[in-house]
Amino acid sequence: MEIKMNAMKLFVLPVLATALVMTGCASRKPAAPVSAANTPSTATTVSTEGLSEDAALNAKNLTGASAKGVTAANRAFLAKRVVHFDYDSSDLSTEDYQTLQAHAQFLIANANSRVALTGHTDERGTREYNMALGERRAKAVQSYLITNGVNPQQLEAVSYGKEMPINPGHNEAAWKENRRVEINYEAVPPLLK
């Protein structure tokens, strides 16, 4: 009887783990856009280059932006909302530290700000592997922000794996663009004017 239970555990646990990864975080829906009637008259300029279509729309439609924690020195870094990764890696690059530090400072100064960190991969590899890699990437950014003082309640790490490429190409240039974490403000984004 005990042998049967152990054999069943060996079968059921991997199946459950695979099912969790398969359904994973990709079922998260982006926040609904805000109507033009609710948009503040203060214009913000956020770089949406490198963001998926939904994330770019959300970045443009957020209300309640804050200038608190935005300085002349970190304005350009706050406008950057994408962190890129090397192939098959979830290690942060030194080029991204200033961007992440600027976002950490803003989030610390604005306790009502909320951010979704969406991890993405290129098309190579299985769906399951890429979902896990996208999650590791999002969690690497989340960990960096928390280590630098951001309240974990302000952050949500999500993986879309290879499901939402921003460049549909099948070459190294496209793959490089698709290996990313997007920093999507869902409440109280930086006011960049």
From TrEMBL:
Alphabetized Pfam families for the sequence: OmpA
InterPro entries: Bact_OuterMem_StrucFunc, OMP_bac, OmpA-like, OMPA-like_CS, OmpA-like_sf, Pal, Pal_lipo_C
Gene3D superfamilies: OmpA-like domain (3.30.1330.60)
Signal peptide: 1-28
Its membrane topology: Lipid-anchor
Keyword DNA-binding included in the entry's annotation: no
GO biological process: cell division
Family according to the record: Belongs to the Pal lipoprotein family.
NCBIfam families: Pal_lipo
Subunit structure: The Tol-Pal system is composed of five core proteins: the inner membrane proteins TolA, TolQ and TolR, the periplasmic protein TolB and the outer membrane protein Pal. They form a network linking the inner and outer membranes and the peptidoglycan layer.
Protein name: Peptidoglycan-associated lipoprotein
GN (gene name): pal
